Protein backbone atom coordinates (compact mmCIF):
# COMPACT_ATOMS: atom_id res chain seq x y z
CA UNK A 1 0.00 0.00 0.00
CA UNK A 2 1.47 3.36 -0.95
CA UNK A 3 0.88 6.76 0.62
CA UNK A 4 -1.34 9.09 -1.38
CA UNK A 5 0.57 11.45 -3.63
CA UNK A 6 1.01 14.91 -2.16
CA UNK A 7 -0.27 17.74 -4.27
CA UNK A 8 1.67 20.95 -4.70
CA UNK A 9 5.37 21.68 -4.78
CA UNK A 10 7.47 19.22 -2.77
CA UNK A 11 8.34 20.57 0.65
CA UNK A 12 5.26 22.75 0.98
CA UNK A 13 2.06 21.61 2.52
CA UNK A 14 -0.61 23.65 4.26
CA UNK A 15 1.22 23.53 7.58
CA UNK A 16 4.55 24.81 6.26
CA UNK A 17 2.74 27.44 4.20
CA UNK A 18 0.86 28.57 7.31
CA UNK A 19 4.06 28.77 9.36
CA UNK A 20 5.70 31.07 6.79
CA UNK A 21 2.55 33.18 6.40
CA UNK A 22 2.26 33.72 10.14
CA UNK A 23 5.92 34.71 10.36
CA UNK A 24 5.40 37.29 7.58
CA UNK A 25 2.14 38.57 9.11
CA UNK A 26 3.96 39.09 12.41
CA UNK A 27 6.92 40.83 10.74
CA UNK A 28 5.02 43.07 8.32
CA UNK A 29 1.49 43.07 9.66
CA UNK A 30 -1.38 41.25 8.06
CA UNK A 31 -2.41 44.25 5.95
CA UNK A 32 1.21 44.85 4.94
CA UNK A 33 1.69 41.32 3.60
CA UNK A 34 0.52 40.46 0.12
CA UNK A 35 0.17 37.08 -1.52
CA UNK A 36 3.02 38.23 -3.77
CA UNK A 37 5.21 38.72 -0.67
CA UNK A 38 4.29 35.25 0.50
CA UNK A 39 4.95 33.78 -2.92
CA UNK A 40 8.42 35.36 -3.03
CA UNK A 41 9.27 34.21 0.50
CA UNK A 42 8.26 30.64 -0.30
CA UNK A 43 9.81 30.63 -3.77
CA UNK A 44 6.60 29.35 -5.33
CA UNK A 45 3.91 30.88 -7.50
CA UNK A 46 0.74 32.42 -6.12
CA UNK A 47 -1.23 29.70 -7.88
CA UNK A 48 0.71 27.10 -5.88
CA UNK A 49 -0.39 28.89 -2.70
CA UNK A 50 -3.99 28.99 -3.92
CA UNK A 51 -3.75 25.24 -4.34
CA UNK A 52 -3.73 25.03 -0.52
CA UNK A 53 -5.89 28.01 0.49
CA UNK A 54 -8.41 30.15 -1.36
CA UNK A 55 -7.15 33.47 0.04
CA UNK A 56 -4.87 35.35 2.40
CA UNK A 57 -7.91 35.72 4.67
CA UNK A 58 -8.10 31.94 5.01
CA UNK A 59 -4.48 31.87 6.18
CA UNK A 60 -5.35 34.47 8.80
CA UNK A 61 -8.42 32.51 9.91
CA UNK A 62 -6.43 29.28 10.24
CA UNK A 63 -3.73 31.06 12.23
CA UNK A 64 -5.92 32.90 14.74
CA UNK A 65 -8.19 29.87 15.14
CA UNK A 66 -5.17 27.76 16.10
CA UNK A 67 -4.36 30.14 18.94
CA UNK A 68 -7.99 30.56 20.02
CA UNK A 69 -8.74 26.85 19.85
CA UNK A 70 -5.76 26.17 22.10
CA UNK A 71 -6.98 28.70 24.67
CA UNK A 72 -10.56 27.44 24.57
CA UNK A 73 -9.34 23.84 24.95
CA UNK A 74 -7.65 24.89 28.19
CA UNK A 75 -10.85 26.70 29.23
CA UNK A 76 -12.85 23.51 28.58
CA UNK A 77 -10.36 21.52 30.69
CA UNK A 78 -10.72 24.11 33.42
CA UNK A 79 -14.50 23.74 33.50
CA UNK A 80 -14.16 20.02 34.26
CA UNK A 81 -11.30 20.64 36.71
CA UNK A 82 -12.26 19.75 40.30
CA UNK A 83 -11.52 22.41 42.84
CA UNK A 84 -12.16 25.93 43.95
CA UNK A 85 -12.41 28.83 41.52
CA UNK A 86 -8.94 30.13 42.44
CA UNK A 87 -7.47 26.73 41.55
CA UNK A 88 -9.40 26.71 38.28
CA UNK A 89 -8.17 30.22 37.54
CA UNK A 90 -4.58 29.19 38.20
CA UNK A 91 -5.06 26.12 35.99
CA UNK A 92 -6.40 28.36 33.21
CA UNK A 93 -3.51 30.82 33.48
CA UNK A 94 -0.93 28.02 33.57
CA UNK A 95 -2.52 26.34 30.54
CA UNK A 96 -2.71 29.64 28.68
CA UNK A 97 1.01 30.22 29.19
CA UNK A 98 1.71 26.74 27.83
CA UNK A 99 -0.46 27.42 24.76
CA UNK A 100 1.42 30.68 24.24
CA UNK A 101 4.79 28.90 24.47
CA UNK A 102 3.72 26.08 22.14
CA UNK A 103 1.97 28.32 19.62
CA UNK A 104 3.98 31.54 20.06
CA UNK A 105 3.75 32.88 16.47
CA UNK A 106 0.02 32.12 16.30
CA UNK A 107 -0.77 33.71 19.67
CA UNK A 108 1.39 36.70 18.74
CA UNK A 109 -0.66 37.20 15.59
CA UNK A 110 -3.92 36.79 17.52
CA UNK A 111 -2.90 39.48 20.00
CA UNK A 112 -2.04 41.88 17.18
CA UNK A 113 -5.31 41.73 15.24
CA UNK A 114 -7.23 44.99 15.37
CA UNK A 115 -10.58 44.24 13.77
CA UNK A 116 -9.88 45.50 10.27
CA UNK A 117 -11.43 42.44 8.60
CA UNK A 118 -14.38 40.15 9.26
CA UNK A 119 -11.98 37.42 10.40
CA UNK A 120 -10.22 39.79 12.79
CA UNK A 121 -13.56 40.94 14.23
CA UNK A 122 -14.60 37.31 14.76
CA UNK A 123 -11.26 36.63 16.50
CA UNK A 124 -11.74 39.67 18.73
CA UNK A 125 -15.25 38.49 19.62
CA UNK A 126 -13.83 35.11 20.68
CA UNK A 127 -11.12 36.86 22.70
CA UNK A 128 -13.83 38.86 24.52
CA UNK A 129 -15.67 35.59 25.22
CA UNK A 130 -12.46 34.17 26.71
CA UNK A 131 -12.00 37.36 28.78
CA UNK A 132 -15.52 36.89 30.17
CA UNK A 133 -14.63 33.33 31.24
CA UNK A 134 -11.60 34.66 33.11
CA UNK A 135 -13.60 37.47 34.73
CA UNK A 136 -16.29 35.00 35.83
CA UNK A 137 -13.66 32.80 37.47
CA UNK A 138 -12.20 35.83 39.27
CA UNK A 139 -15.70 36.80 40.50
CA UNK A 140 -16.33 33.27 41.70
CA UNK A 141 -12.96 33.14 43.48
CA UNK A 142 -13.76 36.48 45.11
CA UNK A 143 -17.16 35.16 46.25
CA UNK A 144 -15.41 32.12 47.74
CA UNK A 145 -13.10 34.47 49.65
CA UNK A 146 -9.90 33.47 47.86
CA UNK A 147 -9.26 36.62 45.80
CA UNK A 148 -8.91 40.10 47.21
CA UNK A 149 -12.25 41.91 46.98
CA UNK A 150 -10.82 45.43 46.74
CA UNK A 151 -10.14 45.22 42.97
CA UNK A 152 -12.84 44.96 40.31
CA UNK A 153 -12.83 41.37 38.92
CA UNK A 154 -12.73 42.62 35.31
CA UNK A 155 -9.65 44.71 36.15
CA UNK A 156 -8.03 41.74 37.89
CA UNK A 157 -8.73 39.53 34.85
CA UNK A 158 -7.29 42.13 32.47
CA UNK A 159 -4.18 42.65 34.57
CA UNK A 160 -3.68 38.92 34.92
CA UNK A 161 -3.95 38.28 31.19
CA UNK A 162 -2.04 41.46 30.42
CA UNK A 163 0.89 39.79 32.15
CA UNK A 164 0.36 36.52 30.27
CA UNK A 165 -0.06 38.27 26.91
CA UNK A 166 3.04 40.42 27.44
CA UNK A 167 5.12 37.26 27.07
CA UNK A 168 4.84 37.57 23.28
CA UNK A 169 6.99 40.69 23.47
CA UNK A 170 9.99 39.17 25.17
CA UNK A 171 9.75 35.39 25.47
CA UNK A 172 12.04 33.52 23.08
CA UNK A 173 12.18 29.72 23.33
CA UNK A 174 15.56 28.26 24.22
CA UNK A 175 16.71 24.69 23.85
CA UNK A 176 16.15 22.77 27.01
CA UNK A 177 13.78 25.32 28.53
CA UNK A 178 10.30 24.15 29.37
CA UNK A 179 7.15 26.19 29.15
CA UNK A 180 6.22 24.78 32.55
CA UNK A 181 9.00 26.82 34.22
CA UNK A 182 7.59 30.00 32.69
CA UNK A 183 4.04 29.02 33.68
CA UNK A 184 5.24 28.39 37.25
CA UNK A 185 6.87 31.83 37.39
CA UNK A 186 3.77 33.62 36.07
CA UNK A 187 1.48 31.80 38.51
CA UNK A 188 3.76 32.45 41.47
CA UNK A 189 3.97 36.18 40.76
CA UNK A 190 0.26 36.54 39.97
CA UNK A 191 -1.41 34.35 42.54
CA UNK A 192 0.67 35.32 45.53
CA UNK A 193 -0.59 38.86 44.93
CA UNK A 194 -4.19 37.83 44.27
CA UNK A 195 -4.84 35.45 47.14
CA UNK A 196 -6.37 36.77 50.32
CA UNK A 197 -4.23 34.50 52.53
Automatic annotation (TrEMBL):
Does the UniProt entry include the keyword 4Fe-4S? Answer: no
DNA-binding region boundaries: 34-53
PROSITE patterns on file: HTH_TETR_2
GO molecular function per UniProt: DNA-binding transcription factor activity; transcription cis-regulatory region binding
* Keyword Transcription regulation carried by entry: yes
**Key words, A-Z:** DNA-binding, Transcription, Transcription regulation
Instruction: Please name the InterPro entries in this protein's record.
Output: Homeodomain-like_sf (IPR009057), HTH-type_TetR-like_transc_reg (IPR050109), HTH_TetR (IPR001647), KstR2_TetR_C (IPR041490), Tet_transcr_reg_TetR-rel_C_sf (IPR036271)
Pfam families xref list: TetR_C_24 (PF17932), TetR_N (PF00440)
Which superkingdom, per the lineage?
Bacteria
Give start and end of each HTH tetR-type domain.
11-71
Q: Which Gene3D superfamilies match?
A: Homeodomain-like (1.10.10.60), Tetracycline Repressor, domain 2 (1.10.357.10)
Q: What is this protein called?
A: TetR family transcriptional regulator
What is the organism of origin for this protein?
Answer: Amycolatopsis coloradensis
Amino acid sequence: MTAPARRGRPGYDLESLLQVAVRLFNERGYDGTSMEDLSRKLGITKSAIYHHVPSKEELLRLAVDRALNGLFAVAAETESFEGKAIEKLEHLVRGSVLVLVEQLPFVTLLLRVRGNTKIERAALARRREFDRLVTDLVKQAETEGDVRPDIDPAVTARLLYGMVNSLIEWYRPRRGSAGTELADAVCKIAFEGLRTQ
